[in-house]
Amino acid sequence: MNIFRLAGDMTHLASVLVLLLKIHTIKSCAGVSLKTQELYALVFATRYLDIVTDFISVYNTVMKLIFLGSSFSIVWYIRHHRVVRRSYDKDQDTFRHYLLMIPCMLLALFVHEKFTFKEVMWTFSLYLEAVAILPQLVLLQRTRNIDNLTGQYVFLLGAYRGLYIFNWIYRYFTEPHFVHWITWIAGVVQTLLYADFFYYYFESWKNNVRLQLPA
Amino acid sequence: RNFYNGKDEL
Question: Does residue A72 have a pLDDT over 50?
Fold first, then answer.
């Protein structure tokens, strides 16, 4: 494990904690896209099928359990918690997630390393994770005032993806590897989706004004 | 064989 990978995982963990903090303590999910959260729950459920078949490390298993548990509980909170669900912007969060799920599944069925159930599911999760943030970005664009926690959540998620790219570059030069360009392309696409958000995030930070994305 | 294939990542 290199420093970029660890920093990436910690940023990812921090993003989840920020979101849980907002939902659990403020009892609000305003500005949070349920569609994106459902997609993440599906991403982890399909990617971590190996949790029961392969053991990598205690760290790996614990982190997988955290990401599975947190993503499903966030979805549960937004859908069912008696107070939290009232703050959900249902009318704004209109992105149809099957428009992302179906193409990702088709792509995974045709473009993968091995045609096995686990491998296709793993590839599907990579493709889906790459685009899962889109409903959240669309929702942010529609939200006039983005609160600090929601802004930080998206920023941390973007930082996590960026750090993973540094991790791959580092591993490329230091470890034996075979080509897995699928991971590279999905990861780069995912990071690029945040470029626009990062630009406005830093602008608002520099000018000390509230974050707002242009429509 | 201990090739890096990304499966040890999260």
Answer: yes
Whether A12 and chain B come into contact, CB under 8 Å, resolves to yes
Distance from CA of B3 to the nearest CA of A (A): 5
Which residue of chain A has the CA closest to B9? Answer: A60
Q: Could you give the CA distance from residue A79 to residue A95 in angstroms, rounded to a whole number?
A: 16
Instruction: Please judge whether B5 and A175 are an interchain contact, meaning their C-beta atoms are less than 8 angstroms apart.
Output: no
pLDDT, average across residues A69-79 = 97
Mean pLDDT taken over chain A:
94
Q: Token pair of A112, please? A: 């993968």
